[in-house]
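Students often ask why we bother encoding 3D structure as a string. The short answer is that it lets us treat folding as translation between two languages. Here is a chain of 464 residues written in the first language.
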Amino acid sequence: MTTPDVTGGVPSTAVPAGPATPAMPTTSEAAVPPRGLPASTALPAAEAVPTSGLPTGQPLAFSPEMARRDFPILHRTVNGHPLVWLDNGATTQKPRQVIEAVAGFYGAANSNIHRGAHTMAREATEAYETGRAAVAQFLGAESPDDIVFVRGTTEAINLVAQSWGRANLGPGDDILVPVLEHHSNIVPWQLVAKETRARVVPVPLRPDGQIDLDKYADLLSMRTQLVAISHASNVLGTVPPVREMTALAHRYGAKVLVDGAQAVAHFPVDVRDLDADFYVFSGHKLFAPTGIGALYAKPEILREMAPWQGGGNMIESVEFGRTTFAPVPHLLEAGTGHISGVVGMLSALNWLTSFDRDAIAAYESALMAYAQRALSTVPGLEVLGSAPDRIAVLTFILAGHDPAEIADWLDRDGIAIRAGHHCAQPALAHYGLESAARASLALYNTSEEVDQLVASLRRLQQGA
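And here it is in the second language, the structure alphabet:
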């Protein structure tokens, strides 16, 4: 088997006759100046925790080569081949700034937060709350108090379902959920609907993977209490018209929860422009550590939400006869939070927003178009969904090959993709499928890596 040429395109011995893969210009690595470490990741012990929010200066120009230099893991080998990480929809890799920020916290600043009188407790608390302010700024929220730290998107949705949902849903109420949703934006609503005797109503898809907006409009009614919708689909890449769908839901008095897990790494988000009532995301899909995420809620809604979990940090005073609670957002953050995760997420947001976000979005759009054209040259390969507005997610099937077999084959060439139902079984069922393969791209992926993917898939089809 021919080894892919990791310095450029696909070797000619690996490519059968067929349509040529179109060229995509890339930036020469030699032309990119090396990036220095942000000050927060290389400070002496006395200043080891970050104390400022997102950068406010002119963003750096963007190139994938510049980004790749910050990711140690992208320079390892797998099965004797340089790693090609195309599983970003599952989790993104972490830049060294994030790795060093987390290590720096544990090495020089580890302490619990809030109510501590000593220096390190104050430093850790400042870092934690600086992270909250940075998330608010990143999402365009009005105040840091609108942000609740959670383990990730799944916990955020469950929090809303159990706190807001229990108080506001009842018999006969509708929760509209598009068929393209991740299981974490379906199952929590099923659980609370069963408890409250509400019902979950699926919103159908069109053949191209877009939400059927006519059917959506028809399903909305005064019974609709909530619309739960992803800002970008993890399996089809579809980016729905969330702002317009939210405005229509609000006409009926319904609240809207937006799952931003797949969106926040790909394009800027402004929750106030969207007019979202709730917005949730996971740090690990945003170049930050696992186990940390955030919930945004409009302040008037957040103030009315009851505690979901009880314990330390979310109280003011406790007696056996009476307990009084801390104000939001602390009310919804029982126990010790993932402090190092917040430090890591702050570093990740600093890293990402140091680049021109519009340039990143333009690059990813061009890379996705290149990948679509390149994959179309593989005999028997079909990409699911063709929505015109989408992120760089390419879920596909290959005639004659099980998705797990495809993933195993590619792994031998050092190419990591995802295979299975992608926690989106209703979306796959829309295409009559139970599983599929998925290549999901990020800002550090390149056209050369796409070429390697295509070459390996062609060899699989050839029976090499």
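Translate back mentally: Confidence is low (pLDDT under 50) at residues 1-23, 25-47. Keep this in mind for the problem set.
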